[in-house]
Design goal:
mainly beta; 5 helices; Immunoglobulin-like; 5 domains; 638 residues; 42 strands
Amino acid sequence: MRTMMASMKTALLVFLHWVLQYAVCRDVFVPAGTLYRVAGFPLSLPCAVSGYEGPRTQDFEWFLYRDDAAGRQMGVVSTRDKGFPYAPFQARVRSGEVRVERDSGDKVRLVIQRLRAEDQGKYECYTPSTDSTYQGNYSATVPVKVIPDTLQISYSRVLAGQPVPEGAELKLTCSAGIQSEQLTHLSIMFGKRSDGEGLGSGAGGVVSTVREIISIDKLLGVVPGHLYKKRYNDEEITLEKRNGEAGQDVYVMKMRAVQPDDTGSYFCEASQWILDPDRSWQKIAQRTLDIGNLTVQQLAESLSITSSPRGEVTLQVGSPLMLTCEVLGLPSEVNSGLLVQWMKRGSVSSDVTGTGGVEVEVARMSPDGVVSWGDDLSRGSGGSLEKVAEGKYSLKLFSARPLDSGVYRCVVSVYAGTGNPGPATPATLTQRSEGVTVNLKSKEVLVAAVAQLPRGPLLKRGSTITLICNATVTTTGPAQAQVQWLRWPIPERVIKKEQSPASDVTLPDPPVDEKPRLVACLRYDGVAELYTNGSEVSVDRLSAVSYRLRVHAATMDDQGMYACHAQAWGQDPHGLWYDTGAKAESNPVTVYLYARAADLLLIPLVIGVSSALFVGIVIIATVTCCFMKRLARQRTPK
């Protein structure tokens, strides 16, 4: 029994040894099937070996069995023997046209830089043995068919090299076609070369950068270059295929608006593709055609914005104001949208005309011609913004007012190549004109205001507070006063006494400054505006100079310090009212509210009722306590 078990173990070990040897035997791999390649273009045949013994770096030898040589073997190139190539390949090997490129120790590629028709045949990749025993596959073959070159490419117009203005449309055409018995596909790519500064790139440090703009791939899909994806998504770059003549299709690339970065040398590249038996796509032919150089002239070099009249303008209040903005240097062949804005800085209320305040927008005209006003001032006084000629815009204020004074500038944003840009479209360039200083001569206006509290009974909670404001406006021509009533809280004053040898000195604390609260306003046109919450307020005009404020059913929150502000409004020759800027503030009037008689009687009444209630509760509690104690003694057993 033991002898039989030993024999079985020995047989199993021999079988496993044989299986392992077979599993790790040498094997050589080359692409499967028949490969079709184009004459005049490179051939690259990969070869790899596995399951070998010995060094990691293996040697390779390539043989060719030509179709026209009756199956005779020809040595092409070897990694270990320089004298290996046969006569037809010796010169090509020495020049490097035919060579072996090593990817790793056991992977190489046979490269023939320019394939010839006589290179057609069956290629064999052979690996000399480094194994202890000769077993496995030491070579592999792949047939290669050389097909004629039928790839054609041409263009219809070459870039002349003349500068093209920024924002102009660029249109490039390229025709290409193939006529092959094999099923091959064609791809087209438009690209650009541009010179840039580089480090270590030779004399001058100039390097050429190649950018792929857009292409139609082998499966007829449009693919933008990675630097042009946004412009392609925004439909600024397109590529279309059109039917052509003589077996060539026409490919048209359009750039809607060229940019300064588009300067460079343009080319068209056509590639021929074939699907190998292993289902991988291989590029078998390629041709590049230079279309020409493009130079983009930047818009900033030619664009200028001017405004007129220049310098300084002085007008009477109520006179019309007209300013003109002109856009110069905009290329006529470029379809550009313009955003025109009139901006103003400073006013009559500033310390120095034209230098104070924040710059505000007066009016604007969008690229689609829609006019909008930046503030109520311009819209209220009446005005217009018009396009009077190509590149010329006129701003008119029919009746200028003192607040219209300041420095005006025309601001133009150019959307080169885009006639109707979207809200998120950035402007290509924005420029400003020189400032035009507008001064308005106004009539001398004097304003005075006096507030008073009429004599009468003491003001109490629930009474009506009546205040009078006498406001006068002295000027020539029609004028009206606009009166505002404001209220401050009564400041709390703490009386402090400082002891001194001579006398007692009483020093009040300074009042606390608090912002006033607007109570009511009677406008120049007679419209009343009320701002208080919870109190019933009314304002009216008693005479030409007298204005009255009444607070009905006053509460303790209505007491405080009241003052009136008078502002003068004038009327221009067109009948429009304007703020002259003249104003005055009255003296403050203090309003106290006293307690009513009913409130004073309520205090002792509340105190008396509270005291009586307290005494009653104490008496009841005492009597109840004594009664309960007596009752408890009576129930106690003797």
